[in-house]
Design a protein that fits this description.
About 85% of the residues lie in helices and about 0% in strands. By secondary structure, it is mainly α. It is elongated.
């Protein structure tokens, strides 16, 4: 009789473990999807910001270029054209960031770094572990209780 109950309990335990594994897998998949959606939204906001900044900077660049050109012609000082050069580099970068292929080049470079220079990505003292986090938490909580006294 005890053998049958033990066998039944083992089967129930195995089913429960499989259920817990399935649930944890589902939870992890949902968390990964949520984090990816948040990343996509943040990137979309960055691109939108870059496009909005380009509108303002483009207007500034146009006004500055016209003003500097008129000033250079009226005063016969070609030196007034000099600020147009660095401003044009900034405009080109913003255009590339907002509508160009900058994001694809950055992604390619990041993938290259991850594959060929992975050692540059290591964190100081390595990846945090449960033990290191728990040790820091205990130290902080004992420090907080010590300060309260």
């Amino acid at each position: 009789m005890g053998f049958l109950m033990s066998k039944s309990m083992d089967a129930n335990l195995k089913k429960q473990q499989e259920f817990m594994l399935h649930n944890s897998r589902l939870q992890m998949e949902r968390q990964i999807l949520m984090q990816n959606q948040m990343r996509e939204r943040q990137m979309a906001m960055q691109i939108a910001w870059s496009r909005e900044f380009l509108n303002y900077f483009g207007t500034f660049f146009a006004v500055a270029t016209v003003g500097l050109t008129v000033g250079a012609i009226k005063r016969r000082k070609p030196v007034l054209f000099a600020p147009i050069i660095p401003l044009s580099f900034i405009l080109a970068f913003q255009m590339d960031s907002a509508y160009g292929t900058l994001i694809y080049r950055m992604r390619g470079e990041a993938e290259s770094i991850m594959t060929s220079e992975h050692d540059r990505l290591d964190l100081p003292h390595g990846t945090p572990s449960f033990d290191s986090i728990e040790k820091a938490r205990r130290a902080r909580s004992s420090l907080a209780s010590f300060l309260e006294k």
